[in-house]
């Protein structure tokens, strides 16, 4: 069952993971907003090491990555919160893996934006 939110967020592993994840999401958004500007031209949205550039689209579609990042953090946070009362180690691991996922998405944002500038 769900645990108290205040007690859940007092756990230093959970709070640290959520804080780092939010910092990574904000850094990715900031990097996009400072480097990608509205334009009528298409930009590169995905790069694959085997096929090269395999997705091209409008400039606003670059915001799919931070949106997915936020939704993944929210989903992992809810599941970890639900598991926290019975399985604290699993909840902590889930949030730590979410932080690693957020870092990977931040690196992907940096690489994709760098490819376009």
Write a structural description:
- The chain has 117 residues and is mainly alpha-helical.
- The chain has one domain.
- Helix content is 68%, strand content 10%.
- It contains four helices and two strands.
- It has helices at 5-10, 12-35, 64-83, 88-116, and strands spanning 43-48, 52-57.
- A two-stranded antiparallel sheet has the order 1-2.
- Strand 1 (43-48) and strand 2 (52-57) form a beta hairpin.
- The longest helix is centred in the last third of the chain and has 29 residues, at 88-116.
- The chain is elongated, with a radius of gyration of 17 Å.
- The model has no long low-confidence stretch (mean pLDDT 89).
Report the helical percentage: 55-70%
Determine the N-to-C terminus distance: 48 Å
What's the overall average pLDDT, rounded? Answer: 89
Strand content: 5-15%
Q: What is the element string, with H for helices and E for strands?
A: HHEEHH
Radius of gyration: 17 Å
Biggest sheet statistics: 2 strands, antiparallel
Number of domains: 1
Number of strands: 2
What would you call the shape? elongated
Instruction: Figure out the total of helices.
Output: 4
Q: Reading side by side through the largest sheet, how are the strands ordered?
A: 1-2
User: What are the low-pLDDT stretches, counting only 5+ consecutive residues below 50?
Assistant: none
């Amino acid at each position: 069952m769900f645990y108290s939110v205040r007690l859940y967020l007092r756990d230093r592993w959970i709070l640290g993971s959520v804080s780092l994840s939010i910092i990574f999401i904000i850094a990715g958004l900031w990097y996009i907003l400072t480097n990608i500007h509205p334009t009528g031209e298409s930009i590169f949205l995905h790069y694959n090491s085997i096929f090269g550039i395999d997705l091209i689209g409008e400039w606003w579609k670059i915001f799919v990555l931070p949106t997915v990042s936020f939704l993944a953090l929210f989903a992992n946070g809810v599941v970890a919160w639900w598991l926290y009362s019975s399985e604290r180690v699993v909840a902590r691991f889930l949030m730590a893996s979410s932080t690693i996922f957020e870092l990977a998405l931040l690196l992907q944002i940096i690489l994709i934006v760098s490819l376009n500038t």
